[in-house]
Each structure stands twice: as C-alpha cells, then as structure tokens.
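Let's do one together. I've listed all components of the complex below, 695 residues spread over three lines.
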Amino acid sequence: MSVSIATKETYPQLTAEGFTIVDFYSTTCVPCKMLSRVLEDLTLDYPFLNIVKVNITDEPRLGVDHEIEAVPTVLFLKDGVELEKVVGLMDEDEIVEKISAYYYG
Amino acid sequence: MMYDVAIVGAGPAAVSAALTLQVHNKSILWFGSRKLSPKVEKSERIANYPGVAMVTGPELNRRYAEQIAQAGLQITERQVTNIISSRRGFLLQGGDEIYDARTVLLATGAVSAKGFAGEERLLGSGVSYCATCDGFLYKGKTIAVFCGSREFEHEAAYLAELAGRVYLFTPYDGCGVERENVVVNPGKLKEITGDEHVTGVELTDGTSLELSGVFVLRSAVAPGTLLRGLNIDGSDIVVNRRMETNKPGCFAAGDCTGRPYQLAKAVGEGNVAAHSIVAYLASLPK
Amino acid sequence: MAETIRLKSRAVEVYDFRRVDISRFITGFAVDEAQLKKDLERVLRRYGRQEDAAQVCEGDTVTLNCRSDVGRYNKTGVPVPVGKGLFSPALEEQMVGMARGEERTLTVDGTAVTVEIVRIRRAVLPELTDENVASFGMEGVTTADDLRRHCIARQVEGFLLEDENPDMAAAFVWQELAKNSQVERDPGECARVEVRADAKLREMTAGNSAAAGLDLETMRRIFVTELDLAAVGAELMERDGATLTTDDYAAYLDKLTEAYPGRTRAELMEEHSVEAFVIERCAEYTAQAIDGYVAETFRRALVK
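Okay, and this is what the predicted structure of the assembly comes out as:
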C-alpha cells in the first residue's frame, strides 16, 4: 500500500505498473482535502492500493499534461493506461465500485 | 471530532429535529443562519399551527431562538458547500473547514437557485463553484463570474486578481468590485456555451462573450450538487416515511422534501427524522 | 556573467527575533484522536507481520485462481480481501472456512465459479509496545511515545498550514522585529516605497470599497516596515552567505512572462523593477526566517 506525492520527474515511474489512483488537487482546494482523506482511509481496507497525489499548484506541468480543468480530478490507471477520469467529488461507495471494476475487471 | 449528527439548515424542521436530538443526548453540529428561516421571518401571520394561535413569523422565530438558547444549542454560521459519504459517516465542508459526522440531516428548505443553461452540463469542464480550488487554472485568461450576493464579492475579487479579464454578473445593484480588468454587468447572463468545454456565454440581449471559464458563486446549493448521488425528484429530496433518503445515514425534512410548504409539516418531519437518526445511530457497530 | 544585486538600505542593528515570546498564540490545536488511531494503525500494518494461514477467515487476503464462464471470475493469482465486498460479496462469504490448496465450486448469481485457494495471508498487527516500535527501524522513533509523537507531528504540520494562529504569531514577530531594529534607509528606496504605497492603496480601494478604511499613512507605514525588514533580510542573507544576482531577477521575469502571456517582457520589467524585486526578495528572506522560528516553536510546544 502506498500514498506518494508525485513530481513531474517521479510521476512516470510511480504510475507505470499496476493499478493506480491518481489524485489531482491544489493547495487551497478544500473539497480536495475531503476526497484525499477518503482515499487515504481506503488504503487501510485495501492495502494493495497505490495512490499517487499530484498538487497541480506545485506541479502545473502535470496539470497541463493531463488536461486538468478542475480539482479534484481522479484518474484510474492500470499499468500506466488511463481507464477513467472523474472530475469533482465522489463518495466512498462510488470509489470502491470503480476500484472493484478496474482492479478485477 | 466526530459528531453524531450534522444538521444543514436552521428553519422549523431543523429546530424541531435539533430539540429532539438534544433530548436524546446526541452531539449536534448545526449549520445555518442564526437569524433562522427567512421564509418564516417574512410570514405575516400563521393561522394553522396547532396550539399557537395567530402568531407572526418574526414572533415565531424569536421563540425558536429563545428555545434553542435555553436548550444550550449552538448554530455554526458556515455555509455547507460539499458533503461526501464514507462508510464511517460523512465529511462536510463548512466554509473552509472539514467536519465529520455519523449522520446528516438536510433541512435546507425549498430550492430557489435555478442553474443557468449549460451550467450543470459543463460543470468541471470550465464551470466551477469553487474559486479557491480552480481560480489559478485561469491565470491570465478571460472568465465570467456570477456573483449571487455581496458575501461572495471577495471571492470575485480574488478571481479578478488571478484572471486576465473578468465579466462580472450580479443580480443586484451596487457591486463593490471595481478593478480595471473587471467589466461589471455587461448584460444579463442567459446561457453558458461550449460542447466539451466552456467556450463562452450568451447574454439575454443576444450578444455572446468568448471566454474560457465560468465561476458561479451563489449561496443556495442544490441538494443534488451538495451530496452526490442523492435521489431527487424535480427539486424535492426523495424520502420515505422515516425521512430516510437513498443514502444510508442521510435524512431530510421540511420544505426540501416537497409540498405542502407548511410549518406543521416541517416541524413534524423534523421530529420524525430525529427519531430515525437516533435509531440509526443505535444500529451502528461500535 | 551574473552580477550581484544589493539593497541600498542597511540594517545597523538587527534585533534577535528569536527572543520574541509567541506562547500566547500557541492555541487552538487539539489532537484528533480518531485520525491518530488511523495513522498508528497504518504504521502497525506497514511494519506488522504478514503470516500464512491455513484456513480462510474474514479479513484475510486470499490469492486465488478461479474458473468460470463469466470473464471477471476467470482469473489466475488474483488477491482478494475477504469480507470487503470488493471482488464479490457472495463469493467471499462462501470462501470463509476453505483451506489452503482446497478447490471448490461456488455459486455467484447463478453462475458456477470454481475457486482454488492458493495462499492465505493474514495481517498480524503488533502490539504498541516500546520493543515492537523499536524493531520497526523508523528513523528517530524507538518507543511507543515516539511513534505517537511522530503521528501527532503530522497533524501539527496540517495545523501550521491551515490555522491562522501561526500567521498571527508571524505577523507579531514581524512587527516586533521592525520596532526594535535600526535601519539606515536609502532615500531612493524610500521614495519608491511612497510610490508603491500610493499605487497599492489606489488598487485596493478600487477593488473593494470596504478597504477604504485604510488610509495612505497606514499604507506607507506597512511598506516602510517592509523596507526595514528587507534591510534586516539583506543582513541575514549576508550572514548566511546568500546573495541575489541578475540571474535571479531574470528567472523572476521569466515566471511573470509565463503567467501573463498577453504582456511584453519590457512592460513587465517596468511594472516589476529590479529595485522592487530586491526589496521583495530580501523582505521574503526575513519572512521565511520568521516563519521558520514560528513553526519550530509551535512544533516544540504541540508535539508531545
């Protein structure tokens, strides 16, 4: 299980393998903090989850590369390939549903 | 701190629920205006509330305020803008802070906010409700800002500092935001346009403005936007007779559940919701 | 070749701001026990043992092979946390009690799924004792109290970022520093301060009528304070061996040009002169030093 904060240098290797949830947020975004908490709590139940956090205030290049138009935005990746992009908040059940679909899909 | 219940709204339904929950010793986090319900305040006379003959709205609010104070209840004057449900309960955003509660009671009243055409469709693709979240994404760009009331003017000013150019729309006169890069009320906002992303806005006089983002700052947040996945019928929150919504742990009472918009109904629903909340809390695993 | 750029005003006497007592600002923080419990659990899990079990229980993570007509249940070596309903609530329920190596045909939604239990992993959370914590090998953490403090430190960092008390403390230190330091102000830089104060006041009152409460005198004082603290900053920089060069100014202009694509570099240079840049950067140096002191003091008081 891991929660790591990516920079534009480390992003490729952090997301290259396996199932990854990328959490795009900005420094002053409060709803983002709520979503991040829910994601982090999930790592307790699902230790194999790999969560990569990207602060687009600090790393604007990553925001542009992934066409982030609003935060929070969450990407679901498998072996580096984007399976789904969700803009805005999600509740825990929604997130678990997607993990269930993409991890075992 | 984890509260037993978070109440959103301070009208009669909320007051009724709060008083009952207090009796059952539940920890309450109550969001709303300390001036209570503006709808009640505007009522001249209420003739059909049993036991209280011909009371005026303001008088009734005064009595509510007194009763709340005597019960030792406190209202937190922060606007709730987001709620997420988790398996452990709910996370609420009140102002700039995050709160935790096991259950939520929505007593937000009848929704008066009607979104602009294109607003819902383009939410997240150029339309945003959160200036501090997404403002910097439009640094140097041209945006439109709808400022629903004076309390949001500082957010509009914040956006004006970041953006290149701002078209500011207000439903009221005498907007206090004056900057050289802000055009105030060039017309009346009718529609937000764009296919995959926002490309501009259309005004009621037929003119269009080209821009890359629209910020909508208003105080009435529709329940469906407030809590994703909430079952809504038209503008009413769908509840069963126990005031349960489709989301476990989330209840609703009062005008927000639909007609009739009556005091006696609101108060009754608030009471029922409170009892359902107590039962729900008792059923949770320790 | 990059040239050094220097502030002209000089601090003759620099007050040691670390003497300023900010204890009255250290308030409003309370340990979030629920979050602490979660963070402790997370650490215990990371360093806890995973042992192989013989029989499937709820909470175990089972690696299994399954065969079925349905694609989702046709997998090899897939890990499944039992009882969380992530893979299949029905399947997980039926797996409880199965032994390692056992193969059984279960039913999910009327479909037959043959499941083979390859491995059963169970997390053994170590007890929160000094001995166990020491064995984790975490840097600076050798006792249960250390671990508790380590987790509280994380909450304190969040508090430092979000709460206003640290900001108020920093503002107080800023004022005290300005009050007690002696600065020889360069007349040219002073004149610039007047101009900036004027411009800023006009900008602020134009943007928000509520700010009309500020008058020019107050504005000037704020900017003169900034100049004084820039002088202090220049002195601190010299002590630390740090310098400002024309390369730094060029990089600053680069960032501005990126942020305001509609403006020319010449325009931006006029609006953000090198003299203003020096004052800003030196004052920022002081501000950062103060922030460091405030953060350090808060951490010492709150992380226990």
